[in-house]
Amino acid sequence: MAFSESPQLTDLYQLTMVQSYLDHDMQDQAVFEFFVRSLPDKRNFLMAAGLEQLLDFLTQTKFSQKELDYLANSGFFRDNLIDYLSKFRFTGQVDAMPEGTLFFANEPIVRITAPLPEAQLIETRLINLLQLPTLVATKAARCRLAAKDKLLVDFGLRRAHGSEAGMLAARASYLATFDGTSNVLAGQHYGIPVYGTMAHSYVQAHESETQAFRHFAASQPDNLVLLVDTYDTFRGTERVIELAEALKAEGVTIKALRLDSGDLGDEAVRVRELLDQHGHQEIGIFASSSVDEYLLMQMHYEQSPITGYGIGTHLTTSEDAPYLNCAYKLEEYAGIARRKRSHGKATRPGSKQVFRHYDKDGKIAYDELCIASEEPESGQPLLETVMQNGQRLKVPESLDIIRHRVKEQIQTLPADLAHLTRKEEFELRISPALQKLTDETNKQFNF
């Protein structure tokens, strides 16, 4: 069994709580909600991602005999827990915002309704599967806002925090409208277009840059992007220009030159001038090296001639916001609303729904947090039921459908929320019914 499929990929306290639930016959229906308490600095929105991987996990997860034996011999657990885990399958309901949906602080993104031990046991992996894709999709959406229609490619696999992170990041960036990835396995597994050029080591392995360029052209005539800054960017560009006419006679066209060092903006301008002076307007410029949305904003403002970007470390690690202040909390048990009242970490009780309201121009005006059973006169409900009785209700959405949703969602962002460097406030209204439930829950659990 792969580690990623095992429910034993969890924190010990999840299992110790389940042991106690079983000991005291606490197996009634529970409602847990996953949400983000506060948005990271410079983030005015987040983009939901990772639901597909979560649903896969919930439909496949089970304990192996080897895992059960380990737990039985750990000294923490009794036979009743081991027997329960030997039969464990997720049998609950999942309500969630579709992937690609924009959301804000204190809004439930995923709601789990299941017997208490089940809902508790999946917490760690649920957070683990939703946090990184949401971070990367949000980062990618910000890059797209900054870059407009430039080519954007995920280059982050080598700097990802493990192989699973590299795969999740490739998918999350693509659904957020990146054009492709360098990750070949992600290309095969998810159907994402793959992009790649050459490394400096390839050039260094040859006796000359010209020889390296010729060899690569012979091997990759339909994918010819040449890295020109191994030694001297402008001499490398001149060598490409010298080679271009000979290649054209052979029916080979150079797609672009790649820059991977120095001041990308200044070097791109000089390279563009050299190419244009020699009549090679058809050759683009592809840039990498510490690219993020802030550099993309600068390049757009300066009207840089760069036509595409490879974005690696800053994207895959969500470098300026590497984690979410997120939580998965019990909101109802045995038909009774519950809430956490800790200072700075209080929650709203009960099973909830988010309704989105738009202004006359189709831009997001505000969201309203309601009890799930409410039916307001206006507003679009954001959570939908995607799993019942442990079974999916429909086939997985294609990435093309999610990408289309993302484009529609981005169009609904008002200008202040689309700002990438200034934090703006967003209005989340609380329905009167939810406020009443909050007050009643406070009185009921007035310890």
Plain-language structure description:
Helix 6 crosses helix 7. It is elongated, with a radius of gyration of 26 Å. The protein starts with 11 loop residues before the first helix and ends with a helix. The protein has 447 residues and is an alpha/beta fold. The protein has 16 helices and 19 strands. Strands 13-12-1-5-3-17-18 form a seven-stranded antiparallel beta sheet. The chain has a six-stranded parallel beta sheet with strand order 7-6-11-10-9-8. The model has no long low-confidence stretch (mean pLDDT 96). The protein folds into two domains: 3-136 and 323-444, nicotinate phosphoribosyltransferase (Alpha-Beta Barrel), CATH 3.20.140.10; 146-316, Aldolase class I (TIM Barrel, Alpha-Beta Barrel). 39% of the residues lie in helices and 19% in strands. The longest helix is centred in the N-terminal third of the chain and has 25 residues, at 123-147.
CATH superfamily of the largest domain: nicotinate phosphoribosyltransferase
Residue windows where pLDDT falls under 50 for at least 5 positions: none
Number of helices: 16
Question: Percent of residues in beta strands?
Answer: 15-25%
C-alpha Rg, in Å?
A: 26 Å
CATH class of the largest domain: Alpha Beta
> So what's the oligomer here?
single chain
**N-end to C-end Cα span:** 45 Å
Keywords: Glycosyltransferase, Ligase, Phosphoprotein, Pyridine nucleotide biosynthesis, Transferase
Protein name: Nicotinate phosphoribosyltransferase
InterPro entries: Aldolase_TIM, N/Namide_PRibTrfase, NAPRTase_C, NAPRTase_N, Nic_PRibTrfase-Fam, Nic_PRibTrfase_pncB, Nicotinate_pribotase-like_C
Catalytic activity: 5-phospho-alpha-D-ribose 1-diphosphate + nicotinate + ATP + H2O = nicotinate beta-D-ribonucleotide + ADP + phosphate + diphosphate
